Amino acid sequence: MKRTSRLTAAVLAGAVALSCTACGSSSASGTGSAAAGSKKIGVIQYTTVPSLDNCYKGFLKGLADEGFTEGKNLTIDFQNAQAETATADTQAQTMAAKKYDLLGAIATPAAMSAYAAAKQDNIPVVFTAVSDPVAAKLVQSLDKPGSLATGSSDQLPLEAQVKMIRAFLPKASKIGVLYTTSEPNSVSTLARLKEIAPKYNFEVVEQGVTNASEVASGAQALVAKGVDCFNNFTDNNVVNNLPSELQAADKAGIPVFGSEEEQVKNGCLASVSIDFVALGEETGKIAGKILKGEAKPEDTKVYVVQKGKPIYNTDVLSKLKLTLPADYQDAQKTTTKQ
């Protein structure tokens, strides 16, 4: 009897072991939430502007595409830095100390804070809405990041933008640019604009600012320099204080060309706009693959948006008594938000 009992127990133990092994194999090779397991991530959005809000919306969708849904197999600690770099630094340090599985960052300053805090703990960082990740020292190159950070770049279609400005303003000669000197994305984009503008017979007149309180006076300084229009970048400080820039432009009777659709809806004349929801979605997919162990940030190519679509504001066009160029008759149109 004892021998039979021992034999039966051995058989049962073997069956249980085989069963557990089979379960383990299924989980590892499966897709979606089964393979993903439960993860905890932190996300820092630098400030509240529509383009960055859209990035986060897309980011969640991209994560869901890869099998991660908040409240099911994903916990997200979302923080907004309210355009304060020191706040972003603190938020990132807190998240790193909690040993999250990944940090997401929306906009260049947030990405720089996240990377600085996370790299010593080997926590991957996935960023979006970063115009120049190389200049921000987040990656070594777009094709081969070589660091714990990767993500997506909202590199603006500047050539198409300048071509559009020329079409709307055939007699203009000076493009005014208001930018924040501490934002690497704006500094590198300004350099690109200076290379492109002469091909369309434009001079770029720049005015650097350091904080929100200088945006209004900076815009007035550009008007005093005789610019024919303003052209925005994805400069977090300037876009966050867009009403101040628009007020100066309106008083001078000159247009502001935005860097994306939401700025046009808020009073800019036109833009060759990229889709920030789609940009965020691609970023979420990258994050999902890293969380599943299917990709490593150092080897994951930075996704760069390839082109934008023209959009113009009919209210602003009418107010400035401008004519819609023939090449933009089929462009998307919008009106100013009330």
Automatic annotation (TrEMBL):
Q: Which residues form the signal peptide?
A: 1-22
Q: Which InterPro entries match?
A: ABC_transpt-TYRBP-like (IPR007487), Peripla_BP_I (IPR028082)
This protein's record includes keyword Metal-binding: no
SUPFAM superfamilies of this UniProt entry?
Answer: Periplasmic binding protein-like I
Alphabetically sorted, this entry's keywords are:
Signal
> Which superkingdom heads the taxonomic lineage of this protein's source?
Bacteria
Q: Which protein is depicted?
A: ABC transporter substrate-binding protein
From what organism does this protein derive?
Caproicibacterium argilliputei
